[in-house]
Amino acid sequence: MENRRFSKKRIIVLTLVIIPSVTTIVILSVLYTSNISPESEVLFVEGPLTENTTWSGLVHVENSVVVPENISLTILPGTWVEFRHYRGYKEDTSVGLFIAGGTVIAIGSPDQQIWFTSDADSPINGDWAGISCIGTNNSVFKYVIIEFGTIGLEQLDSSVIISNSIVRWVNTEGLYAERSRPIIEYNLIYGNAYHEIALEQFNYDVQIRYNIFKGGHFGIHAEATNVNIEGNYFVNYTRGAITGGQFSNLTIIGNKFENISAIPILLDHTTTNITLNNDFGFDTIPIPNLDFPDRKRIELGYIPGDPQDQYLYIYPVIDETRRVVKRLENEITIGSALTFLNGSIWRFNLASYSKGIHQDFIKIDPATGNNTKFYSNNYIVNPRGLTSDGQYFWVNDFTLRKIFKFKINSSNSLEIIDSFSVPNSTKGGLSSLVCDGSFLYAVGHDGSLVYKMNFTGNLISQISYQGAPLWGSLTWTGSHFWGYSGIFLTKWFPNWTLAGKIYPPAWGTDALAWDGTYLWSIQKTCELWADGKIFQIEIIDDHTLS
Questions:
Q1: Are 2-294 and 322-539 equal in CATH topology?
Q2: Which of 32, 142, 261, 457 meets the CB 3.0–4.6 Å disulfide criterion with 420?
Q3: pLDDT grade, residue 39 (50/70/90)?
Q4: What percent of the chain has pLDDT over 70?
């Protein structure tokens, strides 16, 4: 770390949210400028912190900052924390703040909010990585503004308080949690791409109270989560205010809903709920009173995920490492389960529940993407990783934390042959699955280990490897594994040393398959878009990238 001189002029738009006793939000905008002179001190930071640290003034994060165990980072009121932005697809340089067992205390005030933002003069969603909290139970974010990240603030195995803050214009989820106990209250949350808040996988005693959700695509989504949603205001949502599934338990009391285009509360058949005293346009419940202004330095001008979104979701058809042979334009839903068997593509379809009580299993003609056949699924809740041993299919269920062996029976339904619990189940389980003909392999959800298992579920070994974590995608070519690591599709020798890498065809690789000649992938692109998600990829040169 070092102090440097820095010159920057900032234009701040102050939008004051006044909450009266009626349902209209009155906006008062004040424009003023703030100059940081050439003599202003700026703290440039990067890398792991090695001692308790305090930030104030203008802080520029050049490369990701990590707060490890037994280290505290205190951020004082009025601090401006800006992250170096990147908008290409060929550099693994996205910059963020990672709390890896340490503690961050970021407490501003109504007059001196703490900003976490892009360093670009004209920022957009996805400019920087966001804030990740892993294994921290004492971190607090109060009177902060989080904007323009790939994610806003995520917490894994943590209990983080987010209050009196603004979270907006984020590329994926505004706030995200797994296996955590967040407290989220008195915030202003709006304009984030997927969900303002997503609670996925075994969160417990979550408290979401007295927030204003001021417009976007989705409000709150819960999977396998126990959450209390009380006293919030949801206004101007196009796809629903509250959704839930996968054995969640939601208590929804005293919330106000206004101008929701879809069904305001939509829960699946596995989800239990208590829904009391909510206001669906009758003015029986007041809007929460927030004690801070909605300050802006720029107006993004769209909600991430809108058609005019400027983020680079689709990459060039050809570069020095690979060529997109085909894109199946009628496969328009995301998913984390894909395999190739007997000349066909097989996947689970997140958008289709036409045959059974859970998402359909489908067979696709790879030549055309047509002649799709749907099979009934009454067992697999959340497939993340699909493979075959040549005779049977195998799938990893992320929610049930089991691996299932199955076939398609004469009734065109999935028939379970066997199942067993996954290793690492308390730390998120597994997020992929592949068979090399003799064994099953899967990556732990944190991306740090490969688990090798036999066909009865006995753990043979835990394999560590060098390089960036593997994220949720594996396939086997007959001689090598392929996965998704960092920003690359990565090729691995059978001993899990790196053999090569190429660029993916689009943002967010969720699943991989191999047909004997080509890789196939499911790409998020933008999760909300109904565009072709399945790509056929010719490998040109997997040794170009160092």
A1: no
A2: 457
A3: low
A4: 93
Q: What single DSSP character describes residue 506?
A: B
CA distance 266 to 273: 11
pLDDT digits (tens, 9 = 90+) for 165-197: 999 999 999 999 999 999 999 999 999 999 999
Q: What is the pLDDT of residues 87-124, one digit of tens each?
A: 999 998 889 999 999 999 999 999 999 999 999 999 99
507, 466 in Cβ contact below 8 A? no
User: Exposed e or buried b for every residue in 503-532, given b needs 16+ CB within 10 A?
Assistant: bbbbbbbbbbbbbeebbbbbbbbbbbbeeb
- In the predicted model, is pLDDT for residue 340 greater than 90? yes
Query: Amino acid letter at 102?
Result: G
Beta strand 103-107 with 140-142 is: parallel
**Tokens read off for 456:** 């009865």
Residue with more model confidence, 407 or 18: 407
CATH number, domain 2-294, options 2.160.20, 1.20.58, 2.60.40, 1.20.1740: 2.160.20
Tokens found for residue 317: 């058809």
Task: Note whether 343 and 359 are within 8 A (CB).
Answer: no
Domain ranges of the chain: 2-294, 322-539
Strand stretches in 332-478, DSSP E: 338-341, 344-349, 360-364, 373-375, 383-388, 393-397, 402-408, 414-421, 434-435, 440-443, 450-453, 459-463, 470-476
What pLDDT was estimated at residue 1? 38
The region that residue 492 occupies, defined by phi over 0 for left and psi between -120 and 50 for alpha, beta otherwise, is beta
Chain centroid to CA 527: 10
β partners of residue 143: none
pLDDT at 500 over 50: yes
| Residues linked to residue 154 through DSSP beta bridges, in sequence order | 132, 176
Give the CA radius of gyration of the chain: 24
Q: Which amino acid is at 431?
A: S
User: Which pair of structure tokens corresponds to residue 296?
Assistant: 């802006």
Contact 37, 8 (CB under 8 A): no
The closest of 215, 212, 229 to 290, measured between CA atoms, is 212
Please give the structure tokens belonging to residue 431: 């997020």
Closest CA to 124 of 153, 97, 150, 92: 150
What single string gives the DSSP state of each residue in 81-106? EEE-----SS-----EEEEEBSEEEE
State how far the Cα of 323 lies from the Cα of 338, in Å rounded to an integer: 20
Q: Class of 322-539 per CATH?
A: mainly beta
- pLDDT digit string, tens, across residues 276-315: 999 999 999 999 999 999 999 999 999 999 999 999 999 9
239 close to 218: Cβ distance less than 8 angstroms: yes
pLDDT of residue 11: 36
Nearest to 183 by CA among 165, 166, 204, 208: 208
